[in-house]
Amino acid sequence: MTGRRTIAATQVISVRGEVSANVQTHLRLVYAVAKQAAQVLVFPELSLTGYELDLAAGLAFAESDSRLGPLLDAAIETEMILVVGAPVRLGPRLDVGALALCPNGSILLTTKRHLGMFRPEVNPGGPVPPPESSVLDLGDGSPLLKFGNNTATVGICADIKQPR
After folding, report:
1. Tens place of pLDDT for every residue, the chain, 164 residues?
2. Other Cβ atoms within 10 Å of 141 Cβ, number
3. How far, in Å, CA of 133 to CA of 117, rounded?
4. What is the DSSP letter of 50?
5. Is 76 within 8 Å of 27 (Cβ atoms)?
6. 36: burial class by Cβ within 10 Å (0-12, 13-18, 19+)?
7. Is the distance from CB of 22 to CB of 15 less than 8 angstroms?
8. What are the C-alpha distances in Å from 120 to residues 50, 62, 123, 127, 129?
9. Cβ neighbours of residue 3 closer than 8 Å, sequence gap 6 or more
10. CA end-to-end span of the chain, whole Å?
11. Sign of torsion over alpha carbons 101, 14, 154, 113
12. What is the pLDDT at residue 125?
């Protein structure tokens, strides 16, 4: 498969704070996308917990968290890199993480480097969440993902607008 690359993106409606239910939703999508022979499947920011800043500290994942087990098994079985989102505890820091679960059983962690600001026009009249920076720390980078003869990196939300 010289040069072949198929990257799929999916959208999920995460259940607020329900990691087990969200893992099951992810698994259903993984097996559906695997039928299309994708090499990489990318889920949204904080897809495993929902975008729930008030719950982030209590739901935070470790880099090799047992809750990732079913998804890591699916990555191995389908030979697909799965990029899932969760708050991640790194020592005293709490970051937005994108965990790349790889077919070789490894997990690569990207942390969000540019925290976003709430825009009132997105939800006019609705509740105003705290700014990310009041809950989360700035991340410090993104490892390279290799699939086939391809190399990519992961950007999380506001990171993708940064030229570097």
Report:
1. 444 568 899 999 999 999 999 999 999 999 999 998 899 999 999 999 998 988 999 999 998 899 999 999 999 999 999 999 999 998 888 888 899 999 999 999 888 876 765 555 555 666 655 677 667 656 777 777 788 777 777 877 766 767 66
2. 9
3. 8
4. -
5. no
6. exposed
7. yes
8. 19, 32, 6, 9, 10
9. 148, 149, 150
10. 30
11. negative
12. 65
Structure tokens at 97: 């993480």
Token pair in block for residue 101: 């679960």
The continuous run of DSSP H or E covering 40 comes out as: strand 40-42
pTM, entire model: 0.84
The whole-angstrom separation of Cα 68 and Cα 104 is 14
DSSP string, 64-127: T-GGGHHHHHHHHHHT-EEEEEEEEEETTEEEEEEEEE-TTS-EEEEE-SS-----GGGSTTS-
65: tokens are: 């968290």
Distance CA 18, CA 52 (A): 11
CB 75 within 8 A of CB 31: no
Look at residue 136 in the predicted model and tell me its pLDDT. 64
Domains of the chain: residue spans and CATH: 7-161 (3.60.110.10)
